[in-house]
Amino acid sequence: MQIAGHVRSWYTATANRDLRFPALDGDLRCHVLVVGGGYTGLSTAIELRERGLDVVLVEARRVGWGASGRNGGQAVTGFNKGIGTIASWVGPDDARKLWDMSEESKAILRQRVERYGIDCDLRWGYLLGALKRRHIEELQALLAEWEGLGYGLGRMLSQGEIRALVDCPAYVGGLLDSGSGQLHPLNYALGLAEAARSLGVRIYEDTPVTRLDQGSPAVATTPKGRITADFVALCGNAYLPALSADVDRTIRARVMPVGTYIIATEPLGEALAQQTIPSGFAVADVNFVLNYYRLGHDTRMLFGGGVSYSGYEPRRLAEKMRRTMVRTLPRLAGKKVEFCWGGHVGITMNRTPHFGRLAPHIFFAQGFSGHGVLLTGMAGRVIAEAIHGQADRFDVFARIPHQPFPGGRMFRMPALVLAMVWYRLRDLL
Predict the structure, then answer these.
(1) Which of 87, 173, 184, 231 has the fewest CB atoms inside 10 Å of its own CB, making it the most exposed?
(2) How far apart are the first and last CA of the chain?
(3) The dihedral of CA 144, 346, 23, 28: what is its sign?
């Protein structure tokens, strides 16, 4: 199956359903309008409907069209920054609450997959590979922090131990995290959409919001209708358009759309797949510009990495990524690449999620910075709690400080390109 309206990828080729929702044609009234049909928006809609609220969700393209349908499929513990660093911003008590909520996000994922019968190949087990001694020290510090928080699912690995789990000759050691995992991201997004529909969420595709009037109630304008809502949840992340001056200044200025890319090989066959990743775990290295990879259910290697701050896809992308894959996994030297795709993830200046309000009745969540498979589920829960009148946990996230990217939307990209050159050099040293 290749789902129409999505970027061509291995995910669209192996999707287990092709959901279709109509475009909005006319005016609607609802209690809550959710803007964005990715993980955050769908999770918010599900949580709100489970609390009995009337919900409309609109998506500018297709459900799961953005990062939720194209990402690496890795469900990773915690945040992009350590809890110690986060504690220096918000204090130890709030940092502990944030850690606990990040762990709750794993339970949300498990429970949602089970409750709604979402077939997304969810598996647990994750390897962080160290390429140099500095990485070993970083992983030891990470494990010590986890253990201090009471997290007992991590274990340091010697070079021999990690090579028994993944055949990457460059790894000098690593960290096994039994509490992180992997899934088929598009099938998860489509499963969430089916769950939302089954609960009575009114979903409209091909329905971009072109303007948001932030009065009470709020009014969202679309090409063929208007939606009046008591509450709004803006869940577009890196793809959220400039709906108003407040949206541009408060939300979009604090998130950067960063291109990241994935290739999928031809099927390896069971024998070679077993030799390459005997454990079947998802894997990533510890470089700032990291490589991440895992096996698909049909024995293809799904290999991701590289970033683009320029807004342009790199030239000869598939071949460049194949060369990186072969340097990492030499056994795959003879294997062809059959799929290559990419998309934008949302990052913040401090690489932690950005939650907040434009007004007392307008909420947003964005900038998951590589940890969105899990943390978006928690985002949906705390947004729904806040709309339902219990904002304590939402406000813990909202207290994380965020600064706008320097240079505005026109000039921040060149500065970030230069910064990425520096980090690539640092990874090589």
Answers:
(1) 87
(2) 44
(3) positive
Stretch 185-209: mean pLDDT: 98
Amino acid at site 98? L
Tell me which residue has tokens 């072109």: 210
Contact 291, 135 (CB under 8 A): no
| DSSP 8-state symbol, 33 | E
Q: Which helix (H) or strand (E) holds 254?
A: none
Residue type, 146: W
Q: How confident is the model at residue 311 (pLDDT cuts 50, 70, 90)?
A: low
What's the rounded Cα separation, in Å, for the pair 115 and 92? 34
Distances (CA, A) of 315 to 42, 264, 318, 319: 34, 18, 9, 9
Separation of alpha carbons 230 and 53, rounded Å:
11
Contact 87, 122 (CB under 8 A): no
Rounded to whole angstroms, the Cα distance separating 136 from 232 reads: 45
Average pLDDT in the 44-66 region? Answer: 98
Read off the pLDDT of each residue in 262-281 and give the average, rounded to a whole number. Answer: 98
424 band by pLDDT with thresholds 50, 70 and 90: very low
- The residues, ordered by sequence, that sit 6+ positions from 411 with a Cβ below 8 Å of its Cβ are none
380-409 pLDDT, tens digit each? 999 999 999 999 999 999 999 999 998 755
Check if the beta carbon of residue 79 is closer than 8 Å to that of residue 371: yes
Hey, what amino acid is at 417? V
Q: Give the residue-averaged pLDDT of 60-74.
A: 97
Average pLDDT over residues 86-93: 98
CA angle 289, 291, 296 (to 5 degrees): 150
246 burial (CB, 10 Å; 0-12 / 13-18 / 19+) is middle
Q: How far apart are CA 48 and CA 380, in angstroms?
A: 8
Give the position of tokens 């077939």: 119
